[in-house]
Amino acid sequence: MTPSHTRISKAVIPAAGLGTRFLPATKATPKEMLPVVDKPAIQYVVEEAAAAGLSDVLMVTGRNKRPLEDHFDRNYELEEALHRKGDESRLAKVQESSDLATMHYVRQGDPRGLGHAVLCAAPHVGDQPFAVLLGDDLIDPRDPLLARMVEIQAQYGGSVIALMEVDPAQIHLYGCAAATPTGDDDVVSVSDLVEKPDPAEAPSNLAIIGRYVLDPAVFEVLRKTAPGRGGEIQLTDALQALAADPALGGPVHGVVFKGRRYDTGDRGDYLRAIVRLACEREDLGPDFRSWLRSYVTEEM
């Protein structure tokens, strides 16, 4: 497979999940709209795509996800009210989300796993390489992981996945990669992928995190991929097939990420992500860190 010279411009964000771990907050509010400090989690993800040069974003949604569309649309009444009040700062924040990218939406219908969600994007993506960003992983903008993945895809062709070293005892919580080094310190060649392996049988401690840059050949592989764990079509299974036989759609490489990642996948990690991001904000951090130190001291 020759390296790709097609500029990647499309990102796919699966957002059809029910968010059951955050009930009752997600009974009527999509989990992607839960605030992380003062922005919904999903906005951080779209900002990351835009910063990497991906100007066309497709969200794969489901029922009760209309607030996602509203958030990235214009709100003329609110904007006019803020303009009349002369509140230009808040007006800019409101307009920011609608100016990030060209947004598109498709419903997944019957949610049958991440692989099925990606397959729903096939008519929109066409025959171009594209990125997939999962909303539970927030990547700090100071660590441009996605831009690096796009660069590696252009260099090697095929598909690129994001990997992160984890405690070997925790590898059973992730998809795991069998990999060998390349000439780049942060890039590995992936020969096999295992979904949530037993730690004793895991090929490495390299866990797959929620960023992918995929060759469009993945769609045909997904169409032939049988449902796996939980009756769902697993993206990991399709990538495993591509890694085992590069003739299907190029090699699979991994970028080993050592930067700042905020996991919002469960309640504890969500709270820790808010605290970490709030502490690092110039406008909130000094006062918040001072309060946090005193609070922790009092509770010890």
From TrEMBL:
Entries under InterPro entries matching the protein: GalU_uridylyltTrfase_bac/arc, NTP_transferase_dom, Nucleotide-diphossugar_trans
Enzymatic reactions: alpha-D-glucose 1-phosphate + UTP + H(+) = UDP-alpha-D-glucose + diphosphate
Top EC category: transferase
Sequence similarity: Belongs to the UDPGP type 2 family.
Keywords: Nucleotidyltransferase, Transferase
Domain of life: Bacteria
E.C. number: 2.7.7.9
Organism per entry: Streptomyces sioyaensis
Domain Nucleotidyl transferase, chain residue ranges per copy: 10-274
GO function term, MF aspect, one: UTP:glucose-1-phosphate uridylyltransferase activity
Transmembrane segments: none
Record-given protein name: UTP--glucose-1-phosphate uridylyltransferase
GO BP field: UDP-alpha-D-glucose metabolic process
